[in-house]
Amino acid sequence: MSGRMGLAADRGAAAAAAVAQAEAAFQALRRQRRLATLLGAGIFLACLLTAGWVSEFHPATLWAGLPRIGEYFSRVAPSLEWGKLFAGVETEGSLAFWMYRLDAWGLLLFETAQMAALATLMGAVVGLLLAFPAARNLGLPGWMSEAARRLLEATRTVPEIVFALIFVWAFGVGALAGILAIALHTAGALGKLFADAMENIEMRPWEGVRASGGSWFQACRYAVLPAAAPDLLSYAMLRFEINLRSASVIGFVGAGGIGEELYKVISFNYYEEISAIIVLVILAVVCIDLLSEKLRRRVIEAVS
Amino acid sequence: MSRVINPGGHLLSAGEVAAWRARMPAAFGPSVAARLWRWLGAAGFLAWLVGTLWWFDVSPQRLLNGLNGLGVIVRLMIPPSPGEQWVEILQGLAESLAMAFLGTAIAATVAIPLGFLGARNVASSVIFRFSLRRVFDGMRGVDQLIWALAYVRAVGLGPLAGVLAIATADIAVLAKLYAEAIENAEKRQAEGIAAAGGSPTLVMRFGILPQVAPIMLGHALYFFESNARSASILGVVGAGGIGLQIAERIRVRNWDEVAFIIILMVVMVMAIDWLSQRLRRRLIGGR
């Protein structure tokens, strides 16, 4: 009996020791984890303070600025009145009074959309031409794809606005500078996506065309393009929406579109016109989002 | 030449070909109507292209002149030079980085409670959630540059306007992403806390937050990367950072310094991308 009890006690002691060991390990792990979290938080806080110091983000300036921000945005907000909402242009507080230059702004928005479309088309064409050498699976020498990829990366990393600032000097103030700036940036962004899409195609059609004596260009035309077309179209159309947004602000540097009007209106503090134009831009972007979503589905169905 | 060899090897007569054509018109290429539509589409596209090019006054002469001017500018850019005010350039770069960091941090912090409010499994009021999301959508549609320009008018020139612009433009998008992450969180842990008697606050803190925190951090890092790019141009409208430096130098046509700043910008963006990718992998990939 005593032996058995001793065994049980031994077992109990062993279990307690194991529990204590596990507990110690758990505590050690927890300490380590806590230390890591504290260290991360410390580094983050240091970065935050440095960033605040460098960007002159003092609580006092912010506090002083808050009322001004509130005042500014309340002035920008349209002063609409329910009773007169659908009254004529002359009545203050009506929609028509708020949007009193709807025809001119509509034309500018249309111009902006055309700029975006043209820039997307040009960028997509250039991107497509560069994507063939950039794709690594089409049997071209390695240095060629490397060079094409670096070129695409360079045009993609520089923001459109910087290109636009430079092009305004070269091509003169106007929509052309904006179109070319957006197109150049688009070529870099789309070219990479196109090349990646081409690298993901099934290689059998390519081998078939090559084996039956087709040239490299014929293989690109009849094996790569049909397989990649749905992806390419979908990327290009998504890019059109992005470009519409950039085309609406590229006018800030004198490169055409509704951005020029918006810049003027904000600079001269025509408060309510600011909100009118911004609402129009948002509406246009939302409309084109919905439209291009439908179009994209139909086109992709037709192609594939 | 209208005879066609069939797989059997013998020649088909013209009559047989006509019979096959009648049975399976699609096998003989697109129909006349389809071809007509295609031509019409191509003609319409060409008309649009020519029309827009004409409207935007794009002529070969103008393009050629512009390219000539561009060639001169590129030649003046080489070799890139930091100029005499290179301290200012470095300051601008640091300012841009600080603006991106602070703006993202503010947006990510403010977006956490908004994300909880906008999530379906946390906020029960449909009308409140719907209106909150519409406000998010509206804010998202306004470009960062527009916010920057507005804030410059409101709080004056300088990086403060840039920080506020970045924060305002990102709060909406981050809140939406956070709300989606919270909606996709596993319910069992939250239910467990609630079943053990935890209050709604405790459910959020111990049931949902541990699941979504890595996702939120990942999103915030992505936004930091993207903001490091955009913060470098906000200065063009006067909101501080390197953009101001580049705009000033373009105005006085110091092209070699412009090239230097562009190279610096590209290097900074690449360095941030690399750093953030490593950080993201450590924070999220380790699990």
Question: Can you give a write-up of this model?
Answer:
The complex is a heterodimer of chains A (304) and B (287). Chain A is mainly alpha-helical and 304 residues long. Helices cover 81% and strands 0% of the residues of chain A. Chain A contains eleven helices and no strands. Chain A has helices at 2-54, 59-76, 95-98, 102-134, 142-157, 160-171, 175-199, 204-211, 216-249, 258-267, 271-303. The model of chain A has no long low-confidence stretch (mean pLDDT 87). Chain B folds into two domains: 1-58; 86-285, MetI-like fold. Chain B has helices at 14-23, 32-55, 60-77, 86-118, 126-141, 144-155, 159-183, 187-195, 200-231, 242-251, 255-285. The longest helix of chain B is centred in the middle third of the chain and has 33 residues, at 86-118. In chain B, helix 3 packs across helix 11 and helix 7 packs across helix 9 (200-231). By secondary structure, chain B is mainly α. In chain B, 77% of the residues lie in helices and 0% in strands.
Overall mean pLDDT score of chain B? Answer: 85
Instruction: Indicate the proportion of strand residues of chain A.
Output: under 5%
Number of spatially distinct domains of chain A: 2
CATH topology of the largest domain in chain A: MetI-like fold
Secondary-structure content class of chain B: mainly alpha
What value does the Rg of chain B take, in angstroms? 30 Å
Oligomer type: heterodimer
Query: How helix-rich are the residues of chain A, as a percent range?
Result: over 70%
Structural class computed from helices and strand pairing of chain A? mainly alpha
- CATH architectural arrangement of the largest domain in chain B: Orthogonal Bundle
Give the C-level CATH assignment of the largest domain in chain A. Mainly Alpha
Number of helices of chain A: 11
State the end-to-end distance of chain A.
83 Å
What is the CATH superfamily classification of the largest domain in chain A? Answer: MetI-like
Shape of chain A: flat
The tally of strands of chain A reads 0
- What general outline of chain B do the C-alpha atoms trace? flat
